[in-house]
Structure formats: structure tokens, C-alpha cells
Amino acid sequence: MTVKILSIGLRGLEGYRVQVEVQEVPGIAAMVIVGLPDASVKEAKERVLASLYAFGCDFFDKRLVVHLSPPERKKHSPMFDLAMAIGILKAMGKLTAPVSPDAAFLGSLSLDGAIQPVDGMLPAILAAKKLGFQKVYLPYDPALPLHHLKDLDCIFVQTLEEAVQYLQGQRVLSLPPAFRTPEIIDSPRKHHRDFQSIIGHHQAKRALEIAAAGGHNVLMVGPPGCGKSLLAETFPTILPSLTHDAQLEVISLYQLAGEKIESGHPPFRHPHHSASSVSLIGGGTHPKPGEVSLAHRGVLFLDEMAEFAKKTLDMLRQPLETGKVTISRISSTVTYPADFILLGAMNPCPCGYLGSRTRYCTCSPKQIQAYRNRVSGPIYDRMDVLLSLEVIDFTKETRVSESSETIRKRVEEARRKQYERYGKEITNGRVSFELLMEKSPLANRQQLLLQQWASQHQWSNRVQTKIIRLARTISDLKGTEKIADESLWEAMTLRWMKTYTKQQATAR
Question: What band does 442 get if pLDDT is binned at 50, 70 and 90?
Fold first, then answer.
């Protein structure tokens, strides 16, 4: 008799139903696993047989065939151990109680029969919920946001013996109250920085507020010590908190990558410029999320952007345009979400002092041009805001800045208007251009003005689109229903970057 037990397989964040079929066949005693298993799944036969022996069942003299269906998909997780063990016990008559076809079994087995969590438990649970499962048997993991899984009956089992007892109705397991409040979702904001503490840079703070409200990318150019990194590291303090669905998505990505996330707030990733393309985009034999996916729903900060390899930077084109990244390898092709706000920071020249009032630039015009060319034109086009920063004179700066909390409230209100306008959780920087124009069309005089500026500054169609998106966000911050002329003017100034030639810098 063939026994069929269900589990969940993962292909990136996408989950699919895996049917574990177990049958005893005549022949030399062995346990054979088929269905494109990788090394971690092939080794399951030793773990499963050892845990069954610890449970009191010896099947070393039997020939068991375990088939993981669908057979055309590569299986690369020890998540199927529990389903295999239950299937073997059922096939050999040690488990007589029926197993519901609406139940999925997840977890890895240790040699003594203990059930352990593995990477990717949360995306597997969410996939089970989406596939219509009613029950999921799994080990307890403190990182699981249980109060968001109310429609799914999660049965936590610590050992194989507990799972069998529950299936036979001999024991009812109860979840301890301490497990019901995971700290990862409801932890308060803890920031050590605040915009109120940053002296000067009022134009830059305004631009960052617009970027946070509409999900726009920003490139900051300025000499060393002008505050580029400080502004970028303070930027997350004005971002709104993640919604429940967004938090689940972010936690799922971190679990697949095998990393921990300290809170359910927008992530902030800051890779070094020596990072490889695989670490930035994602990859490996079994593709895992890279920095662009770990920054999903948050911020990716590339300091010294021109020092990154040009090939690596050009790989950002797809995620910046589509909000997702596709990784193709021999074993599989997976797609991960990568909807982030890109903050870039770079010097105006190799030495960093082109245009400085206090230091002399030692770079030749050829060196300056070669340095700027490290960031390709398509990447420049995908940056919504271009900021020129200068060193602040602390003796002359007297204006008091607003706190991050005050700015964040305006950002949250602007985003609320965007969600209501588009009918879904999407910002002006990510909504399709057709829907943007349908909801907020430009007046004829505004279109003519934009075309004149685009012709004068040689802006591409993509840049013109980004200016319209910026203008829509500025109008949301101001509370106007339509795109105002002042908002369009301000959006066009955000695409203008102060540049100096070698001769101009010397004259200063």
C-alpha cells in the first residue's frame, strides 16, 4: 500500500505542494529517496531511520521507497523529514490513525527524534495557507509571527513521539501563553539618530522627506565629511512602519537568507563597495536573497557608489525598474522581491574636493570624467533626486531643524493619500505611469514647461517620468488634489546637480 503525506517545497518565496509517497517493496534492505533530491534531502534517510529507531521502530531490514512529487522540481531542504517519518510509520502499520489530506508536515528530524526548524519556515507556512491547507504540523520557532496566522491551525510538536500521539488523539498540545507574543513584530522604534540633531542641510532634508513619501531614489554628491553618510543613516527614522503583510514578506526573506532581523521596521542595508555581484543581487548554487532583496520595503545605501564595480552597479537596473530580481542558475531560476529605496553617495572627483571652498582639487579633467563614468548613464537615469552637498559652516548655521517624528507624520499622511488614490499599497515612485497619469494628469502648460526643460537639459523620457512622479509626491505633501505648478518646479530643481569643471573649481 502506498501512503501519501503532504509537505511544502519552496522555490524562492514561492511555495508548492509536495506529496511524500512511501511504499515497501521487495528487495535488498534500504531506504531510497527519489524525486530530484539534493544532498540535504538524500541524507534524510539516515536522520529519519535513526529517529524512528529512537522512537522504538526498527525498519533497517525493510526496503522503503520514498517518492517526492512533483518529480520534475529539485528538492533542496530538510523540511520534508517529518513528512517522511510519518509516511513510513503509516506505511508500516505503526500509525493507524488517518492523516487528513488538509494537513502539511514541516520540520527536520534529529537523531533522537526531536523536530527542529529550518530556514524558510515562515514562507513555507504562508505558502501552506495560500494552498488551502487547514493544519500545519511544525516545530516551534520564536521568530514566527503567530498572531498573523489566525486562519491556519499551527500544531507545534517538539518530537516525533508528540506528533504521533497527536495524530492518534492521545494527547492535546497547548501553546504556552509566552509563545503568543513574538517580539519581532511589535518592538518599538529604537533610533540613535534624529534629523533634529543634524545641523544644516535643509534642502537635503526636504529632498529626503520627498523621497521617503514617494519611494524615490536619491544620489548625493559632495566632498568628504559633508554629511552624506549621516543623512543616509538617519533616513530610516522618517520612514513609516511596515504593514503586517510587508513585515511577513521581509521576515520571510531574512529567514531564507539565514539572517536575523532585529525589528519589524523598514530594513536598512549598507553593503561595502567591495561586495561582489552575488552578495548584492543574490545567487549561489541554490539562489538565496542578496542585499537588494534584504533591503525590500526598506533602504539600500551604497556609500562611495563610484567605487563599486561598474558591472555590479549595472545589475541594479532590473530591481530598480521592476521591484524584483530574477536569478538563474543551473539548478533553478527564482525571483525575489526587491522593492527598495536606493540611496547613493559619492564624491565629485577621485580626491573628493572638486568645487570645495577650502581645499584644492588635485585631479585632472580626465580623471574626473573617468570617475564619473563609473556610474553609467542608465543608473543616473534611475535616480529620482540628485543632491549636491557642501560642507556646513557651523558658525553661521542657526536655523533649527524639525525632528524625525514630525517629518515621519507628514510622510505617513502623504503615503495614506497615495494608497487611497491607487486602491492598493503602492507609492508614486512605484505605481505604473499609466495609472499615475490617469489619476493625476498634467495640464497643457505644465506639459509644455516640462518639454522645454527636457529639451534644454537633454533629459530622457525616463527622467521626465520621474519628475512627474516627484511632482505628484510634493503635491501630496502639500495636500493638493492636483499637481501644482510649484510642485512641478520643485521637482525639476531636484534633478539639477551643481557641477564644476576644473577651470571653475580653480577660479573659486
Answer: very high
How far apart CA 79 and CA 73 sit, in angstroms, is 15
Cell numbers 541524507: residue: 43
Residue range 160-199, pLDDT digits in tens: 999 999 999 876 554 544 444 344 444 555 557 899 888 8
| pLDDT above 70 (res 147) | no
Tell me the CATH number at 123: 3.30.230.10
CB 253 within 8 A of CB 337: yes
How far apart CA 278 and CA 290 sit, in angstroms, is 7
Instruction: Please identify, among 166, 185, 210, the residue that sits at the C-terminal boundary of a domain.
Output: 166
Is the per-residue pLDDT at 340 higher than 70? yes
pLDDT the model gives residue 180: 41
CATH code of residue 399: 3.40.50.300
Strand partners, 344: 219, 302
Q: Residue 178: which residues within 8 A CB-CB, separation 6 or more?
A: none
| Contact present, 191 and 404 (Cβ < 8 Å) | yes
d(CA 341, CA 302): 11
Q: Which domain holds residue 367?
A: 193-429
Q: CA of 69: how far to CAs of 5, 44, 294, in Å?
A: 11, 16, 31
Asked if 149 contacts 157 with a C-beta cutoff of 8 angstroms, the reply is no
Strand-by-strand arrangement of the 299-302 sheet: 268-269, 299-302, 341-346, 218-221, 385-388
Total domains in the chain come to: 2
pTM: 0.88
Assess if residue 505 is contained within a domain: no
Q: How far apart, in whole angstroms, are the C-alpha atoms of residue 419 and residue 412?
A: 10
CA pseudo-torsion sign 431, 437, 440, 446: positive
**Secondary-structure percent of the chain, ordered helix, strand, coil, rounded to 5:** 40, 15, 40
Percent of the chain with pLDDT over 70: 91
